[in-house]
Amino acid sequence: MKTLLTAALLILPHAALAEVHEVHMLNRNDQGPMVYEPQRLRIAPGDTVRFLPTQPGHNAATIDGMIPEGAEPFRSKINEDFSVTLTRPGSYGIKCSPHVAMGMVMLIEVGEAEAPVLPDDLPARARERFQAILAGD
Fold this sequence. Notes:
By secondary structure, the protein is an alpha/beta fold. The chain has one domain (20-135): Sandwich (Immunoglobulin-like). The chain contains two helices and eight strands. Strands 2-1-4-6 form a four-stranded mixed β-sheet, with no helix packed on it. A four-stranded mixed β-sheet has the order 3-8-7-5, with helices on one face. The mean pLDDT is 91.
């Protein structure tokens, strides 16, 4: 019993410090059509990102080649309220699978993250949106 209590006390402070960040999946906002809100998120390792299907028809998925080495890719279902805890520091490129060609992408930076390298096969509108995100627009 004492070992279990000690383990719980060691884990509890870390869980209490972790935050949950909400990302809304939208058909349109002031940034244009097919967007995540926010489009750029800076979080600490161990924080959770919750993707909310605020408007229907969207999901959240990692972009091949745009996650830190050793990080687990993920892909939610369409219209799913989906949460993921990101522990590996670095940049995560996120897309809406049905709308990536329309530029529905976002960037999550976990801890100290370098600017991501955009894959060559990224659709033109997705590339433009990432460039605007990285420029701070």
